[in-house]
Amino acid sequence: MVLLADPDRPLEHREFIEECGRKAPDDRLVQLGLAAHAFWEGKSDEALTLLDKLLPAEPQLLSGHAMMGELLLDRGTAAFARWHAHLPSNASASPDVWFVRGLCARRHGELRVAVRCFWEAIRLAPSHRRATYHLGQVLTALGEEAGDVVGRKAEQLIRLTQALDNAVRAQFQSDNSFHEAADVLEQLGRVWEACAWALAAERRFPEAEWPAQVYARLAATLNEDLPLTLAEANLALALRFLTVPGPPPAFCRRCCRVWRALASGTGG
Q: Phi-psi region for residue 189, left (φ > 0), alpha (ψ -120 to 50) or beta?
């Protein structure tokens, strides 16, 4: 539930992953886990070495490609351009790849391209915290009123991360952290998850009254057609105008072929 609520968060299982690596050194997902830990810990050389070995053998690990792209942002435009040129054909299905494209565009001052890229990320993953944060920042820099709306959504996602951190630190023995997580998830229009946290709290803290209150508000809305994020709370739907492309930016020539992917519609 923590990982579903905040997919951007690091996993704090380095020792377990290292033990898996000793027992299954050729397991591709274990290698990806080790690269991810190196990435989160700021060990960029180690992460790149692992990814260089892993991705040629498993080219469809899009999360690994996105991780490599983010690492290469600091290695010069030529390295980033080579990375982008060799992405697999389905790379635009990854919200993390779009996020990295947005970071590159923002870094080069191509703010409207960055907006499009971050929008694509949240279209694919409405709970993408970092893409939401950067989208709000760029829209605000462009003087767009939508920047305030997106900024508030980013603040809610940060609050959710803090509630999850509190729950993990308390080893899931804190009623308050469960309540806070459920409350923010409800505000974000993520009804299924809000009810799941309420159900878990009811089982762990049978004397708590708030889970029943959550059910009273939300249970009637639960059905098999209900999306993880309600349509009215989905920023990508509210900001649909951002899919309209603009003129090809100079950034494309300097850095990579992002614009060609955008203009051809491969991003959706």
A: left
